[in-house]
């Protein structure tokens, strides 16, 4: 089955965003959902302090357990991410992440698009190692109290999905605004502006979740398949890729979010997104 | 089974093992406790 031809990606993105945030009425009251579903992690980046959130943020979960005395690392959240990563790699970024959907919508704004300076792609791996895995444990060891460092100092999803609705509905939170909130608001503004000019700016440069899933793209069960015999190296797949990669050269790139734009653009049908590669064609039977 | 298949099976088994070990350690409850309260760090007030 070719996923790109079978499902409407935007519909799946919207559905995933709604299913992850089913408690929409809570946005008006600013109350958090406290049900048992919050034992489970969402596949994409979605702040668990968002009043609408039904599931927990996997990055928040990793940091919460990592920063709790006696734990050090969340095997539960880590295992969950490993499971999803082996099943479908970064497909969650392309289809299931609410923050990815927001970035896709921002990229529709008609301004001249630019490419990210390639070495900046490695920043997300640094954030994953330092802010998500190391700092919560280190702060616990030093201060006796752990802190979710990525959520606290960087995460723009938390600022947008949690801070905005909670500050609008709680006067006591508005009175507590300080330098940390200003830092996070500046990061959110920079990410939004970045997404206008660079498609999937946050995914490319800053997302630790995408960094983790991307490392598993080379082994994932659902993946992009290239029929090298059919490929005529026309470069159309590279041109339409929102992640600025060349699927014909690197079909299993850790940057690939498996959005399927390249599959749709390929005139030779040499690219396929799914579990199994279709039977290889010869160059002659494609004409 | 191919090398890739073996690697996948190993990683899937590791993932399931990690989830079960985490559940046994009570991590789901730690995560739930964090997720049902306003995370002051997440909203930039912590």
H-E order of chain A: HHHHHHHHHHHHHHEHHE
Structural shape of chain A: globular
Overall radius of gyration of chain B: 17 Å
- Termini of chain A, distance in Å? 22 Å
Number of strands of chain A: 2
**pLDDT average of chain A, as an integer?**
92
Structural class of chain B: mainly alpha
Task: Provide the descriptors you would attach to this structure in a database record.
heterodimer; A: 287 residues; mainly alpha; two-stranded antiparallel ribbon; 16 helices; 2 strands; 50% helix; 3% strand; disordered C terminus; B: 46 residues; 2 helices; 67% helix; 0% strand; CD1871A-like (chain B); transmembrane (chain A); metal-binding (chain A)
Describe this structure in words.
The complex is a heterodimer of chains A (287) and B (46). Chain A has 287 residues and is mainly α. Chain A has one domain. Helix content of chain A is 50%, strand content 3%. Chain A has helices spanning 3-6, 9-20, 26-29, 58-66, 75-88, 91-95, 98-106, 123-143, 149-153, 156-169, 171-175, 179-197, 201-205, 208-215, 236-240, 261-265, and strands spanning 223-226, 271-274. Chain A has a two-stranded antiparallel ribbon with strand order 1-2. In chain A, helix 5 (75-88) packs across helix 14. Chain B is mainly α and 46 residues long. Chain B has one domain. Chain B is elongated, with a radius of gyration of 17 Å. Chain B starts with a helix and ends in an 11-residue tail after the last helix. The chains are: A mainly alpha (287), B mainly alpha (46). Chain A binds chain B through residues 32-34, 36, 38-39, 41, 47-49, 53, 56-57, 60-61, 64-65, 68, 71, 74-80, 82-83, 86, 147-148, 151-152, 155, 158-159, 162-163, 166-167, 173, 176-178, 180-185, 216, 219, 221, and chain B through 4, 7-8, 11-12, 14-23, 25, 27-32, 34-39, 41-46.
């Amino acid at each position: 089955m070719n996923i790109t031809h079978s499902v409407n990606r935007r519909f799946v993105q919207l559905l995933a965003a709604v299913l992850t945030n089913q408690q929409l009425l809570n946005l008006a009251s600013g109350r958090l959902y406290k049900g048992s579903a919050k034992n489970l992690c969402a596949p994409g980046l979605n702040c668990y302090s968002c009043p609408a959130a039904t599931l927990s943020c996997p990055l928040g979960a990793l940091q919460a357990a990592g920063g709790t005395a006696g734990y050090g690392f969340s095997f539960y959240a880590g295992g969950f991410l490993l499971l999803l990563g082996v099943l479908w790699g970064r497909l969650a970024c392309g289809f299931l992440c609410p923050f990815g959907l927001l970035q896709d919508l921002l990229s529709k704004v008609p301004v001249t698009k630019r490419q990210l300076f390639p070495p900046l792609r490695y920043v997300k791996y640094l954030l994953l190692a330092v802010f998500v895995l190391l700092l919560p444990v280190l702060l616990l060891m030093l201060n006796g109290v752990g802190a979710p460092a990525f959520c606290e100092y960087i995460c723009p999803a938390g600022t947008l999905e949690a801070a905005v609705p909670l500050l609008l509905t709680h006067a006591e939170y508005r009175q507590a605004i300080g330098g940390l909130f200003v830092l996070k608001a500046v990061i959110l503004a920079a990410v939004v502006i970045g997404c206008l000019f660079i498609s999937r700016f946050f995914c490319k440069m800053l997302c630790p979740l995408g960094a983790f899933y991307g490392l598993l793209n080379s082994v994932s069960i659902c993946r992009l398949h290239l029929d090298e015999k059919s490929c005529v190296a026309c470069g159309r797949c590279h041109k339409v890729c929102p992640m600025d990669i060349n699927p014909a050269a690197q079909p299993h790139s850790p940057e690939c979010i498996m959005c399927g734009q390249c599959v749709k653009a390929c005139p030779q049908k040499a690219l396929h997104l799914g579990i199994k590669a279709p039977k290889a064609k010869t160059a002659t039977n494609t004409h | 089974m191919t090398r890739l298949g073996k690697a996948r099976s190993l990683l899937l088994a590791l993932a399931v093992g990690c989830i079960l070990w985490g559940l046994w350690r009570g991590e789901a409850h730690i995560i739930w406790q964090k997720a049902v309260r306003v995370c002051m760090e997440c909203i930039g007030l912590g």
